[in-house]
């Protein structure tokens, strides 16, 4: 049974009575911290020595401490550092500070679900995962709204883990939009699958395959870029607003018919079988195992693949075309970034 709760279901006083440490001040970190602060929560930021984010946090009126000092002070610790950094941060600076009654929170279940972090049984372990990049979490809050979030409880030592997590969701604005109850496992596995099969891996491969097919057939790379990359945003924006139905309603009948007859040929039984294989790898922990190993051995394959992808023809062509379109507000990532 799907459970969705809202601001009326939350007790904001539960989180305003706590001292909260936000570990990390990136996309999600800055949004959580500022929204919490403006909701009346006592917030401090935990950052490693020399962090470039310290100045930004201090300029925003937030107290910045070392991760360990911030966690020593706090009753609630929200870990918003990158997945690949969390294990080391937890072992070095968070675990030694945990005491009975504390709450350890995450915005993604990776490290808890796959066991790289194992909290003691005397703390609550929960998750609030906004379904939006951090800048949208912040913008919608400032506009008086919020973005939906997922809530999960891994460990309820106090008996109040769910109520406190919902209170936290209200304080960052997500309860204004709706907070859906899930589990660490469901959030982690569906998030990884979505990234790999559709949102990042699937879309990137589809765009490149379309571009390469046209270029290899003799069409101009610039025209191929417009058709396979540039116009993708127009279609996704329509889906974002009204689903597949609104997209199909908005495009030409020719495009809609092409959707129906060509889509299943490109994404057919073989693609779905591959997706099932990806999901099986995620659920078994094999993906997590290989990704953790990649990070522990210097990330050579990851960095090599990134460098090669940054030099793909579609990036060279796209860079020139985006420079012509001032309305795009182009951002260029240089090789090595």
Keywords for this entry:
337 residues; alpha/beta; 58% helix; globular; 9 strands
Describe this structure in words.
The protein is α/β, with parallel strands linked by helices and 337 residues long. 58% of the residues lie in helices and 12% in strands. The chain has 18 helices and nine strands. It has helices at 13-16, 27-38, 54-59, 67-73, 83-94, 110-113, 134-142, 161-171, 174-177, 184-199, 201-216, 221-230, 232-250, 253-266, 269-284, 286-296, 300-310, 313-324, and strands spanning 4-5, 19-23, 42-47, 63-66, 76-79, 103-106, 124-130, 149-155, 179-181. Strand 2, helix 2 (27-38) and strand 3 form a beta-alpha-beta unit. Helix 2 runs parallel beside helix 7 and helix 10 (184-199) packs antiparallel against helix 15. The longest helix has 19 residues, at 232-250. The model has no long low-confidence stretch (mean pLDDT 96).
């Amino acid at each position: 049974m799907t459970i969705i709760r809202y601001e009326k279901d939350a007790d904001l006083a539960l989180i305003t009575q706590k001292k909260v440490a936000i570990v990390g001040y990136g996309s999600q970190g800055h949004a959580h911290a500022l929204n919490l602060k403006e909701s009346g929560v006592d917030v401090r930021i935990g950052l490693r020595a020399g962090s470039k984010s310290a100045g930004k946090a201090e300029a925003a009126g937030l107290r910045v401490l070392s991760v360990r000092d911030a966690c020593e002070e706090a009753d609630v610790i929200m870990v918003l550092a990158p997945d690949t950094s969390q294990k080391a941060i937890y072992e070095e600076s968070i675990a030694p500070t945990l005491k009975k009654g504390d709450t350890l929170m995450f915005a993604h279940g990776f490290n808890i679900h796959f066991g790289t972090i194992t909290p003691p049984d005397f703390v609550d372990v929960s998750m609030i995962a906004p379904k939006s990049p951090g800048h949208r979490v912040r913008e919608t809050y400032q506009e008086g709204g919020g973005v939906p979030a997922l809530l999960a409880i891994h460990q309820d030592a106090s008996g109040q883990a769910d109520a406190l997590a919902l209170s936290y969701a209200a304080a960052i604005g997500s309860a204004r939009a709706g907070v859906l109850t899930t589990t660490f496992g469901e959030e982690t596995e569906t998030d990884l699958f979505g990234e790999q099969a559709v949102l990042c891996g699937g879309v990137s491969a589809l765009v490149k395959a379309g571009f390469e097919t046209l270029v290899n057939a003799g069409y101009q790379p610039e025209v191929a870029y417009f058709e396979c990359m540039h116009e993708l945003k127009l279609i996704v924006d329509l889906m974002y607003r009204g689903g597949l139905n609104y997209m199909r309603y908005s495009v030409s009948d020719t495009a809609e018919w092409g959707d129906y007859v060509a889509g299943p040929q490109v994404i057919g039984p073989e693609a779905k079988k591959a997706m099932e294989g990806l999901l099986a790898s995620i659920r078994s922990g094999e993906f997590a195992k290989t990704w953790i190993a990649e990070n522990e051995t210097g990330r050579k394959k990851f960095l090599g693949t990134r460098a090669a992808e940054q030099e793909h023809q579609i990036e060279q062509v796209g860079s020139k075309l985006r420079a012509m379109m001032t309305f795009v507000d182009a951002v260029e990532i240089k090789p090595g970034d």
